[in-house]
Amino acid sequence: MRSLYFILTLIIFPIVISSSANHEYYVSVTEVEYVEEQQSLQIISQIFIDDFETLLRKRYNENLTLHPDSDAKVIENYMKRYLADKLKIKVNGNDVNFNFIGKEYKQDITYCYLEIKNISNIKSIEVINSLLFDVLPEQQNIVRLKIFERNKSFLLLPNNDKCMLNFN
């Protein structure tokens, strides 16, 4: 049943992305890919602009607007702080911190680009993703891990916000 729910979420997400700013589904997608040649984890989090803006307004600044003409440094600082608080990654059981590379807006999605450097000899990776759970109880977060030859997707919910992939 859970896999059916997950498949339906994956099918519905592209439809939701192409819809208007008002949407019925609250979902984000975070891809974590290991680039062995660069020994880095490259991360892209996709979050609906209106949901992210609502959260950042409630948490940091009620006058904030996620728009290309807005003060990028201030907005990126808030995004970085929030993502660091709600997106946690462990490699081989150890916490690792990401660098916030930047963000861009495409249609109604915010793309946040993150990177963790100097990663080698991965035996396990754990991701805790509680993005938007603090303002949207219906929020669902899809995490896609692309590590070595393995591709694995997880559906995270407010009561189950953690996933792990072992390579032993």
Uncertain parts? 4-8, 15-20
The strand count comes to 10
The domain tally reads 1
Instruction: Output mean pLDDT.
Output: 87
Rounded radius of gyration (Å): 16 Å
Question: What are the SSEs and their pairings?
Answer:
Layout lengths: L1 H16 L9 E9 L4 E9 H11 L12 H15 E5 L2 E3 L2 E8 L2 E8 L7 E6 L10 E8 L2 E7 L5 E5 L2
Parallel strand pairs: 1-8
Antiparallel strand pairs: 1-2, 2-6, 3-4, 3-7, 5-6, 7-10, 8-9
Overall description:
This is Peptidase E. It holds the Pfam family DUF6702. The strands form 2 sheets. This protein has a 6-stranded mixed β-sheet with strand order 5-6-2-1-8-9, sandwiched between helices. It has a 4-stranded antiparallel β-sheet with strand order 4-3-7-10. It has one domain (28-147, 154-166). The protein is built from 3 helices and 10 strands, in the order αββααββββββββ. The protein has helices at 2-17, 49-59, 72-86, and strands at 27-35, 40-48, 87-91, 94-96, 99-106, 109-116, 124-129, 140-147, 150-156, 162-166. Strand 8 and strand 9 form a beta hairpin. With 168 residues, the protein is α+β, with helices and mostly antiparallel strands.
